[in-house]
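hiii so my PI (J.) wants the whole complex modelled not just the main chain, which honestly fair. so below is everything: three entries, each one labled with what it is. i double checked the lines twice but i was tired so who knows lol
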Amino acid sequence: MNDEHVVEPQEQDVDILFFEIGAGLFGTDASQVLRIDRSLPEDITLPELGPLHRGNRALVFDTPEGEGHLKVDTVRGVRSIPVTQLRRMPPTAGAAPYAVGVCLDEAHTVLLIDLVETARTQGTQGRH
Amino acid sequence: MSLDTPNEKPASKARAARKAPAAKAAGTPPAQQPAALKLFTDTLLQVLAGNLNARVPRELVGAGGDEMALLLNQVLDNLSASEHRKQVAAQEIDQALDALINLVREGDLSQWNTTTEDPQLGPLLEGFGKVIETLRTFVREINEAALRLSSSANQVLAASTQHETSSTEQAAAIHETTATMEELKHASAQIAENAGSVARVAEETLGAARAGRGAIGEFIQAMQQIRSDGVAVADSIAKLSKRVERIGTVVEVIDEIADRSDLLALNAALEGSRAGEAGKGFSIVAAEMRRLAENVLDSTKEIKNLITEIREATAAAAGAAEASKSATESGEKLGAVAAQAVEGILAGVQETSDAARVINLATQQQRTATEQVVASMAEIEDVTRQTTQASKQATGAAAELTQLAARLAELIKRFKAD
Amino acid sequence: MAPDRAVAAQARPEQEFFCFRVGDLRLGVPSENVLEVFRAGLLTPLPRTPSFIMGVTGHRGEVLPVVDLLRFLSKGEARIGPRTRLFVGITGSIVAGVVADTVLGLRRIPVADILPPPLGGDAAAEHLLGVVPGASPQDSINLLNFSKLLQTARQRAVAR
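here's the output for the full assembly
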């Protein structure tokens, strides 16, 4: 349960920012997000998560190399989620490194994305 | 010409008559005459020879004979004058005769203007003139009349010809009319027959239509019954449908429970399996439970299939009921329309029947009338034929008359009146 | 029936298999490798996983990767429907959900009845313990060496 990326030890709840790419709903640690911006063509895209509809929003986050911009369709908002509902990605799944965990939300499981990892996996791409 | 001869004859007779004494005188041997007497004799011989101008020369005669000579000369003078008058009269008679001959030969009345001074001939010629004048008047009038006659005859001919043509045409027309009337007679006979058939058919139709009216009434009643039955059926179907839906819901619940039971039993069996020998009996129960759950699931599956079938069937039945309802409604409407139509047909057929009867009667009357007309036409045709014959004769006569008038006019033209 | 079977079990060594059907395959997994069976709920697809990983699903507070054996054995492609089951397969520290169209049940199979996997078979044959012939070829059950299968699966997934 000690997730170094997602869980902050002192707090019972974690703020998760939910966003959509295509038909899929995803979450990310809201503290990673500096701001939400209009997207630009050179922003980072994650086609593995599904095709973007319009992709006119970008999640701006900080990386050691500078700001990263992930292109998304819609930002659904930030919700406080109890840490007990968050799980690390089982290694057996062999998923992409930025797919760090899952938020168990009743019937749904929402994939949690590490924004910094997205910049790392697509180092040659996107704004910094 | 023939008149020449009488002109000649009196002359020769006269001469012969005059000669005879001369010959008698000559034949008689003259007595011894004195010279003076000879003078008398010669003169008389000369006169007898035709010389009326011969006179006894008184100077030669001497005194004894002078008085005698004078007297003889006076006789001779008288004779000469008389002879001269005779000659003039003869000439005038010749002229008159010539004029008459000319008149007769040439028909020329215009040339008559012979006059005479002879008191004896005068009245004769005057009489002739009067006669000729009368003739002239006649000729003029005849000429005029001939011209008028010719013109009238022409008119008569034209009229007669026209009449003949008209009469012929009339005959043709009458013939045609007769033929048409014959046809009409046949046609009206046919019409009468047809009208009879129509009346019969109309009678039959009337019967059929009455039967139809009854049948339609029954049909409408049946339709109303079907519709009310159909409404009941639709209600039942709706209720059934609701119940089936309810059953479906219940079955879903049963299904869910059975599925959960299946899972529970399965997991229980797995638990039992892990418990080793201790869990073995439990496993068997769990397996049995599972089997039951599966049975339930199989049953619910069947029920679901049945429900689906019932649903389809009820939907079809509802559709059919709806269709039946609208069909019966339209059936009722159609029935009403048909009833109305049959009423119309009944009325129409009744009228037709009546009309056909009237037509039958009328055509029979017409046939009688037509037959009468045909008979009349035959008579007229006969008369017309006669008329045509008569007018042909009239035309022939008129033609002849025209020819005669023309001939007359031609003849009259030979007489010149002016 | 049951007492007879118990007697028979003592007489001959048996092994218990969790038997199920997926696609056209009738498979058996040693019952000790199966923890639980549950209804397949919503799956969350994952990026860049091997094709036999259909995604993850949450179950009893755990996140399970979901394995499609049809894809893994190159026998087609599983589909998730309302009656689709997932069983929790385990070997050592590896836990995964496995797709099953229908669970046939737990079968105790006499070891003597298990025939060796056919020689020169396809790639699937390497993960077979043996085959239990049925009344007809369709009724025969392929018994999986599930521990080996899950280890291979993890290796394939993580090696990438």
